[in-house]
Amino acid sequence: MRGDEFFQEIAARPPLTKLHPRVASFLKNYLAGEKVIPFGDKRVINTQFPPYPGRAFESLLDHFLVDDAPRLYSVTLAVTNRCRFRCWHCYNAGRSGKDLPLEVIRKLAPELQDRGAAIVTLTGGEPLLRKDLGEICRAFDDRSCLIVGTTGAGLTHLYIDGSGELCPCNLVPLSFGNVAREPLGDILRRMGRHFVRPRPSCVGRILTRFTDGGPLPLRPESSESLCEAHLPDRHPLPLFYRTRQGCGPSAGNPELADAYDRIHGQYDEFWLSAAGRPVRELVAKMDLKGSETVFEAGCGSGFGTALLARKLGRGGRVIAADISAGMLDTARRRLASRKLSNADFLLCDAVEALSGLRGLDAVFTSWVLGYIPLRPFFAAAAKALSPGGRLALIVHRENSPREEFEIFSSLVARDPRVMTRRVAFDFPRDGAHLKSLVDGAGLAAVDLWEGSAVFRYGTAGEVLDHLLKSGAGTVFYDAIDRSARDRLTCEFLEILRKRNGKRKTFQVRHDYVACIAERK
């Protein structure tokens, strides 16, 4: 299979659906020159890419997402400097023959993976001379693809020799510290002062000629002095980093607020007919007594707010936040029409509002998480809740509604540049994923279930109306280049009709996860 055909196949699935269109276009063009080979139940591109699918491949894709955090991509880890041969060209010639202890490697492995290492090459010397090579391999989990190399730029790559000396590359005999004697983070910070940005060419050509005449690798003090004296501060970036640097901002709160401001008058018609039922079920399970203070994140048109306010009565209070002024206006009118006065409304970001609150009895949110990043929200909720306080939520599963999202993503994959900005939200893959995030924030899931809200329509056009008038589908539509919107819309509707076949109704299935968690 050609690489660009492979891209077309996988681009409709997460996490590739979260790539910035410029970065997606770069990846598609890169893969066009590759041949993808089946290997068991995996696909192999080349030795620079982990097999697909797998967690290591997802680690690689993390580098393609717009992310300012410094990350490693690959590490060459010499598990020993020992070798049966004495090759004149070996870059390990003259290095220490004392092996890095297994316990040091076991500690080092998860640190490298936490820093993003998608490819780890175990080399030497001759790695097969280590009798504990199997234990070394087991120190890494499936976030990394392991390659064993035997004798038969910016700080995105590392070489760690068999004695623990950390170098920028196996061809650059400079050491910035030893992982057996000091923390990895301290060594990387020291090295990072000289390798601030990725480089398009090998620094070995610049630095190696200054390392003659002494034991190798050079000690950290000498390595730093050498870099300060001879390594140019100014240099171009590799193409990938230039591409990523040119990416504009992703869609965020301003785009979401604008979209919901435009659809707030039609939102209930296109959403609550099927999506209201699980909200009622969630409120019923909250076991509210009537005297609690409840914070609602993303109250929207006030459907959940009204259910909470009625259940609490005059003894309790709802603090409801949303970023859309239009939605808040609809919510206020809803509660006023029901003569409910025990709710305060805030026009603000939910995480910011939660961060200023303490002692809450409950935090509630329905169909909004994902547009609100999960980890920051759960962390803020855990701090705002009183001990024993509860978090109750309903959240879309990733890539839901699945069929419609896959059609859209496959159309965009043909030419990612039809999107003018990145649109990527933070929905959980499934219940297990959500539970791990909730538990990681210091909350304990006491009830968790999954379900679907199914909408039925008579035509493909009505399905499109539903997607554009019931939520963030408008943000995706707005991000399409204006010159391509009509064409993509027609193609989307035609594919939807063909998939539906002779069935008289079109079903739009929104899969969700619901959870009630308690602060520990």
Give your account of this protein's structure:
With 520 residues, the protein is of the alpha/beta class. It is built from 20 helices and 14 strands. It has helices spanning 3-10, 21-31, 55-62, 102-114, 133-138, 184-192, 204-207, 220-230, 239-245, 253-263, 267-285, 303-312, 325-337, 350-355, 374-384, 402-414, 431-440, 460-469, 473-479, 482-500; strands spanning 37-39, 42-44, 74-78, 119-123, 145-148, 157-160, 166-167, 293-297, 317-322, 343-347, 360-366, 385-396, 443-457, 506-519. The mean pLDDT is 92. Helix 11 (267-285) runs parallel beside helix 12. Strand 8 (293-297), helix 12 and strand 9 (317-322) form a beta-alpha-beta unit.
Q: Briefly, what is this?
A:
The chain is an alpha/beta fold. The protein has 20 helices and 14 strands.
Tell me the strand percentage band: 15-25%
Q: How many individual helices?
A: 20
Task: Report the count of strand segments.
Answer: 14
Low-confidence stretches: none
Q: Quick one: overall form?
A: globular
Mean pLDDT: 92
User: What is the first-to-last residue Cα distance?
Assistant: 51 Å
- Biggest sheet strand line-up: 10-9-8-11-12-14-13
Indicate the radius of gyration in whole angstroms: 27 Å
Sheet bearing the most strands, described? 7 strands, mixed
Helix fraction by DSSP (H/I, runs of at least 4): 25-40%
Structural class: alpha/beta
